[in-house]
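To: structure subgroup
Subject: Chain for Friday's discussion

All,

I'm putting the inputs and outputs inline so they're searchable in the archive.
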Amino acid sequence: MKIYKNLTLTDQDRIIEMAWEDRTSFDAIEIQFGLKQQDVIKLMRTSLKGTGFRLWRKRTKGRATKHEARSNEKMNQFKCSRQRTITHNKISKR
């Protein structure tokens, strides 16, 4: 596919992983990899089996968290608000 020639297999796997995540928006994928929503859908269609693709589309279609413009204003970050802060690769101890 001409759209994905500049993407490595690792990048494609990461895009698929991000597309399956509920809280990762299509806008975040576009910022990180330069693929618009329709390009992500094409990648998912060619990478997944038919049943998996249909399940994914049913799950993401109309989901507010997959579209930043429709999602909650507080959700403007790429990590969970309850996630511990990790500084200099050292996990803070309790």
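Points worth raising on Friday:
The longest helix spans residues 9-20.
Residues 1-70 form one domain.

D.
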